Here is the input.
Amino acid sequence: MSNTLTVALIGNPNTGKSSIFNQLTGLSQKVGNYPGITVEKKEGQCKLPGGKRARIVDLPGLYSLNTSSMDERLVTELLLDPKDPNYPDVVVLISEVENLKRNLYLFTQIKDLGIPVLLAINMIDRMSRKGITLEVASLEKKLDTKIVLVSTRRGEGLDRLKEILADPASLPRGPIMDIGRVAPDYFGELKKAFPEEDLYRLWLSSSQDTNTTAVDLGALEALKSNFIKSEEDLKKLQHRETALRYQKINEALKGAYGVDPEKAKGLRASIDRILTHKVFGYLIFFALLLLIFQAIFEWSSYPMDFIDAQFAAASEWISENFPPGMLTDLLAEGIVAGIGGIVIFVPQIAFLFLFIALLEESGYMSRVVFLMDRVMRPFGLSGKSVVPLISGNACAIPAIMATRTIENWKERLITILVTPFTTCSARLPVYLILIALVIPEEGSFMGIGYQALTLLALYLIGTGMALLSALVLDKLLKTKGRTLFLLEMPAYRLPLLKNVGLTVWDKTMSFVLGAGKIILAISIVLWFLGSHGSSENFDRAEEIVGQRIEQQGLATGSLINLQVQLDSRREDALAQGLSQARLRDSLQLWTQELEQTAKAQEIAGYKLEHSYIGRAGKAIEPLVRPLGYDWKIGIALITSFAAREVFVGTLATIYSVGSEDEEPIKARMAADINEAGQPLFNLATGVSLMLFYAFAMQCMSTLAIVQRETNSWKWPLAQFVFMTILAYIVSFAAYQILS
Amino acid sequence: MDLMQGQRGTIREFSEHNLPVKLMELGCLPGNVLELVQIAPLKDPIYINLNGNHIAIRRSLAALIEIDIIVEPQAP
Here is the structure.
């Protein structure tokens, strides 16, 4: 055995396992994925008395080694295979004082595998309130183990836990139950065939759907078929095992564990009556959703604007102070802007996970599932899918991360795949400018203006498409076996600040470091393609545009923008009481200055048009023409793959408007004429574009987070292809019908 | 299972092939007591107290559990 002890934390869900893990490891913990599957892997280091160290592995919560989900199977497979690098030297079985009987069920199973088990009984601070009495010494003897009483809330018992871990040899090992009593004939034969093996290990290997290599499954199967002929035979034996285990546990608890029934009836019943009430239950839940939505939509806009401004300033500072050249451009416009594009999501992620951690820690999340299960079930979604779907209306990134709380893999996957259809805030600028252009301001239906109605329709279409795709995916995706809906309704608890903080920290870091890499890489590529070109037009942009301006004057877009800027400055000046004579001088100066800027902007627009992206936009023009788009929109479609709102900025650059203000861009867009001599942004094109943005996966950050959360490229690519094709078809139909 | 909200019952002997092992492991064994705590607003799922374990299950699963209703003595 190496000097580092491997300790596995195992326990039922809701026993405070993560609190103990957090207190043992602090910030030394690492969160990753188990290879090939998407079960979260958490481990950390812990110093033990006497200078030893322990590697603490936090395993998914489970009720029994008889598994029914991917997470649970992982634990059973690990405990069956001593050659696994994570195979524990010691198991700390974490139980909770109120549900001790049920927690001990898992304890007896692990004990029977012959692994040294230390029993940690958590939440002892609740004992007196719940009228629970516990005889530790007697229980230790009957269960053949060492017991530590822990209260993570008060920080008690953890030192004692570490002391015992420092001397692992002192822990008794060996089975607590004679598993042979389940089926004496069968187990007799097993013992003869595998004299070296632990009997319970053999029984588990043969009764579970696992891929363990630790025992010869073939030989085991052959022997098993003589005794267990059907699924029903197997269940009969498992039933007997369950009854025997509870018999053993009841014997052990007799006289050592007592509950005063008067005190045990706690607050839970009365709180539940309100929170799961058919009217108040929903009202409270929707009020909470509204609050969460407000936080990620409204409150986080302040830190986001701040982050945006800081990164823009940093980028500008680098461009001004570093020697000009390709490397400076890469740093300022590629890397710094790219990192800014990652950090900008941090406030939303932090807010959402603050709320989610509070909901989970307090025990309320289970009530949400209870309330919403029947509503979401027909769509193949979980009651827990409601939180991600609503959050998706602010931003899909934190919403998709929030699906981690859904235990069932299929329900989680469907939620991940459909969340990007909900109307995230990045779609808003695109919708708003298009609505302003093509939907008449006048006129209303039932008192609601057409423009507002259109926006509402777009939100409804997003939600509708999310649910519809969920329905389809539910039919398409096949999963092994039926999953059981069995939801624990834990006791209500005050959330621990440390756990909430660590969750927020964890999620934020996992986004910044995990998905961030992909986002940064894509944004550098997009920056390169948008700012480089290999044609003569691109290289001589300054010269060509300069000549054109000399001969034909400034372009329409520039003129419109110039006039708008000039007007606003004049108004400001008049408001400040500038004299007419001074104003005239100023106007002349401003015009010169604005003309210089306009020239620079036209060069930028010309460069973009002839960059690699510009050429790609022109190349896809035949493809997007049936949707009513021209090459300018084509370019904007490609650049806005970075993020949807980039659409507006790109059009501003192409039209040489230069400013991000809506008015001049809108004016310039409205003035654009297509080949037929009609306005380019007519109703048909506008609606077609809005629908395209409603359905297409125009967001590299979402793809990156889906890659991270599903741990494969298969799902994000499938999602991208499906959404783009869908968007294409719908926009095509809309344009053809309307034009 | 045909309890009313708030009622309790004793679990009867049952044939194993119906019930998932998991439910047995959570204490759904003959002789144990089950209480119907709450029915969700849309009638499904239901929230039960099974031998001290507070869990929610779907109606279809609950239908498989056979019980004898305990008649509570009326408060005077």
